[in-house]
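Renewal narrative, Specific Aim 1. Our central claim is that a sequence can be written position by position from structural information alone. The example that follows is taken directly from our test logs and has not been curated for this report. It begins with the structure tokens describing the chain, in the order in which they were read.
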């Protein structure tokens, strides 16, 4: 019987490729929050289906965000891995990405995928998973599925169909001057 052995260098390559496959909290499809411009976005995702000015932002984490936010929204439809994507810009930079995924993702996979700790936030029948990175939040809107509710071993039951990446540059800083 032959033994399968993996050399140290091959093992390093495998481990590095797995690490590179992790999702980045502040980026999607090569677009980076607080860095990417509308021109870069159009170069990657093509022309948007819609452009809207002065849009009010509604997210599962509105509690953390400035109340008077008005952003420009570009909407893209039917790309690789998504049915719809809304990208919001302020001061010429990408600040929020909202993606309706074309295929559901298990909620329990998010901590591993983003290498973040997620906390659940209940909201009616659904709930949100909120992960906090250095410069952004990752928010997953979770719909419980019948099979996942019966599985006690799953930390976060259900599936994600909508993903939010939100820049912390939009956080509510009202009253902070009084703390200095």
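The sequence written for that structure reads:
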């Amino acid at each position: 019987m032959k033994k399968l052995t993996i050399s140290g260098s091959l093992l390093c390559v495998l481990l590095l490729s797995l690490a590179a496959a992790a999702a980045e909290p502040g980026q999607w499809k090569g677009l980076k929050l607080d860095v990417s411009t509308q021109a870069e976005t159009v170069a990657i995702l093509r022309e948007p289906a819609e452009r809207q000015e002065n849009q009010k932002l509604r997210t599962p984490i509105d509690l953390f965000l400035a109340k008077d936010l008005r952003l420009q929204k570009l909407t893209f439809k039917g790309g690789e891995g998504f049915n719809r994507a809304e990208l919001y810009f302020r001061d010429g930079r990408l600040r929020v990405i909202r993606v309706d995924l074309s295929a559901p993702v298990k909620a329990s996979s998010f901590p591993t995928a983003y290498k973040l700790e997620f906390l659940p936030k209940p909201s009616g029948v659904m709930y949100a998973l909120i992960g906090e990175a250095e410069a952004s939040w990752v928010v997953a809107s979770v719909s419980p599925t019948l099979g996942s509710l019966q599985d006690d071993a799953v930390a976060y039951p259900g599936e994600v169909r909508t993903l939010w990446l939100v820049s912390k540059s939009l956080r509510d800083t009202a009253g902070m001057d009084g703390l200095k």
